[in-house]
Amino acid sequence: MVSIYPYSDYRLRQKKCKLIYRVLRHSRSTFMFEEYMDINECLDIYNGLLNKRIVIHLEDETVVNLHFTRNNIKHLLGLHKLLDIPMLQNDGRVVYNILSNGIITDKQIKKSKYFNNISERFLYFCLLPELLHSEIIIDFDSSLCSFNNYETKLKKTKYILYKKIPDTYYVAHLCLSQNINKNKPNSYYPETFFIEHSNKYLSGQTLLKVTSVDIIELI
Questions:
Q1: Residue 2 counted as domain residue
Q2: Which of 60, 118, 195, 214 satisfies CB 3.0 to 4.6 Å to 55 for a cystine?
Q3: Cβ–Cβ contacts within 10 Å for residue 90, how many?
Q4: Residue 40 domain boundaries
C-alpha cells in the first residue's frame, strides 16, 4: 500500500503518536495543552490528504472512492461543538480558511469551555493517514447500534475505518458517507472522526478485508 506521506514524514508522525501513547499510559493528571496536537499540525496532516483520490478496494469487489475537501475538517475535529467560538459555526470551507489564515488560534480553541468534548481528536488526529491504510473496514449498519435506548447519530455512515490504539482500550474511527451523486455512485467523503473507549461500533457489524489502497494525485 502507498503511504499518503513521504516515508520520513510519515515515520515522524508515527513517533509523535507513540509519544502520546506513553503520556496516556503513565499520566493520570489532566493533560496540559502542549500534549495535544496544535491546530497547525492538524492542518498540516489534513492538507496532505487534499487533492487526492483515495481508492479503497474491498474483498467483495466494492470500490470506495474517498475524497477529502476543505469542507470536512470542521466535522472531523468536531470544531462545530465549540459553541462559544461563533466563527467555528460557519460553513466548513469558511472554517478551513479561518484556521489556515490564523484568525482563530490554537490557544483560543483550547481555551473553549467545550474543548474537553473534542480533546481526544486533537490527541489522535495524527492517526488519520494511518487509518486510510486499515486492513479491515466495517460495513456499518446503524440499526445495530442502539445503546441503552439511545440511537446512534451515524445514520449516514456506510463504512468505518478503525484502529485499535496500542496500550489502551481506545478505538479510533473514521466514518465514511456516500456522496449523493448519481454520476458518481461510489464516491465517499469523511463524515466524522472520533475516539471510542470500547468496541461497540464493531460489535455485530460486518467486517470486510481491504485488498488494496491506491492514492491518485489530482491536478
A1: no
A2: 214
A3: 15
A4: 7-217
> Residue 34: enclosing H or E segment and its boundaries?
none
Q: H or E element: which one contains 21?
A: helix 7-26
117/22 Cα distance (integer angstroms): 22
CB neighbours of 102 closer than 8 A, spacing ≥ 6? none
The helix (H) or strand (E) run that includes residue 41 is helix 39-47
Torsion angle of the four alpha carbons 145, 173, 22, 47, in this order, in degrees rounded to the nearest 10:
-160
C-beta atoms surrounding 159 within 10 Å: 21
> Could you give the number of structural domains in the chain?
1
In-domain check, residue 1: no
- What is the pTM for the complete model shown? 0.83
Q: Looking at 98-199, which runs of residues are DSSP E strands?
A: 136-139, 146-147, 150-151, 157-164, 171-178, 187-196
The DSSP bridge partners found for residue 65 are: 55, 187
Q: Please report, rounded to a whole number, the percentage of residues in the chain having pLDDT higher than 70.
A: 80
The 10 Å Cβ neighbour count of residue 20 is 20
Domain membership of residue 22 (yes or no) is yes
Stated length of the chain: 219
| Residue 25 CB-density burial (10 A; 0-12 exposed, 13-18 middle, 19+ buried) | exposed
DSSP 184-206: -TTEEEEEEEEEESSSTTTTT-E
How much is the pLDDT for 13?
52
Q: Is residue 42 part of a domain?
A: yes
Instruction: Kindly tell me if the per-residue pLDDT of 35 is higher than 80.
Output: no
